[in-house]
Automatic annotation (TrEMBL):
It comes from Spirosoma fluviale. It holds the Pfam family Methyltransf_25. SUPFAM superfamilies: S-adenosyl-L-methionine-dependent methyltransferases (SSF53335). GO terms for molecular function: methyltransferase activity. InterPro entries: Methyltransf_25, SAM-dependent_MTases_sf. This is Thiopurine S-methyltransferase (TPMT). It comes from the Bacteria.
Length: 198
């Protein structure tokens, strides 16, 4: 997978555009700025937006090409944020650190996903939020992006189980038209979650 993402992010074109994910944008626009963690941040579109809204941003991904493009995008706006090369399994974060974690199209096999989501919850402060948008299992067959393996796609049952210790404020399955660069474009089925740590 590392080689796949290095190749995708090595193109001069931003694979998923330079604008933030719309759901992520809508959600953080309603919250007072704090410290946010953005895992699997790729080319930095959401990190740049959050930093421009005065959030203290920590981002990570395992792609060096993605990191370099994220930092280039930040430079065009005259902003900086922390971006490390890391994985979900290896990222070292103290408990109760973040007021927000944004999981935007962070797909992984189901066995790994359950462990990762529980670990990320420990990084949240009490009262902190998770914002998630990902492809639903019904995305299979749509040409608008996402994994081609159903095990790496989500549904309501998955997220209710993974985040059962949080207060679920929003959980919806949505048919939408994506316009996020060349690799997220067209009709799609996504799932969206907003949850708050007790």
């Amino acid at each position: 997978m590392n080689e796949f993402w290095e190749t995708r992010y090595s193109s001069p074109t931003y694979a998923y555009g330079t604008q933030p994910n719309e759901f992520f944008k809508q959600c953080i626009d309603t919250l007072p700025p704090g410290r946010v963690l953005l895992p699997a941040e790729g080319e930095g579109r959401n990190a740049v937006y959050a930093a421009r809204q005065n959030w203290a941003v920590d981002a990570f991904d395992f792609s060096e090409a993605g990191r370099q493009k994220a930092l280039q995008l930040a430079e065009t706006f005259g902003i900086k944020f922390a971006y490390t090369i890391d994985t979900f399994a290896e990222i070292d974060v103290p408990e109760n650190t973040y007021g927000l974690i944004g999981l935007i199209y962070a797909h992984m096999p189901s066995v790994e996903r359950k462990v990762v989501h529980k670990r990320l919850i420990s990084f949240l402060k009490p009262g902190g939020f998770v914002i998630l948008e990902a492809f639903h299992k019904e995305q299979l067959g749509n040409p608008s992006g996402g994994p081609k393996d159903s095990d790496m796609l989500y549904n309501r049952t998955d997220l209710l189980e993974d985040f059962n210790e949080l207060n679920i404020l929003q959980l919806e399955e949505v048919y939408t038209d994506l316009n996020e660069g060349p690799f997220h474009h067209g009709s799609a089925c996504v799932i969206r979650l907003v949850a708050k740590k007790k």
